[in-house]
Amino acid sequence: MNNLFEIVVLLEEKLVKLLHKFNDLQNVNRELMQQNKELDQRLLQQVKLVHDLEKKHESLRVANAIVGSKEDKHLTKLKINTLIRDIDKCIAQLSD
Questions:
Q1: What's the confidence (pLDDT) of residue 39?
Q2: With a threshold of 0.70, does the pTM exceed it?
Q3: How far apart are CA 44 and CA 50, in angstroms?
Q4: Phi and psi, residue 33, nearest 5°
Q5: Domain extents for the chain?
Q6: Which uninterrupted H or E stretch holds 24?
């Protein structure tokens, strides 16, 4: 009978330890779930930021393609000046 009592006491001690571990694991699980939610929110914010930056990058790329580099601007100005001189010559010939 004494042996049975010892087995029951040991079983009870193991059960108490197991319940403590279970509670600890539940707490850790709650913390991890909360951390996961926060990381999901941060991820969504980062995805939105990347999307916005991609749109801005595309707009800047299109604007730069239209404007061109400094060298392209200089060549464009020279061509415009040449065209203006040609127009002035034509006007001068027409007025003669």
A1: 97
A2: no
A3: 10
A4: -65, -45
A5: 2-68
A6: helix 2-67
